[in-house]
User: What shape does this take?
Amino acid sequence: MAVEERVANLEESIGDMKESFEDWQEQSKDYVMMFLNSNVENNKLIERSDAIKAMVMALKEETIATTRASSIRIQELKGELALH
Assistant: This one.
């Protein structure tokens, strides 16, 4: 095989390797973007979950306060009924 043929083969191989590397690089970018986007979505879900937890806690506290106030009012009304 002549030197020129060997050089041509090597240049072709290098070209193929560059193309493969560029394809791999593009796929890697896509995977990184997918990963970053999924992290953003996860963070949004975590924020929403935290907000829902806070709302549930507030509703729980409000329900407890309302229940206590209602209990007190029921006791007062029972007392008034007992007087009549």
Notes: The chain is about 95% helix and 0% strand. The chain has a mean pLDDT of 91.
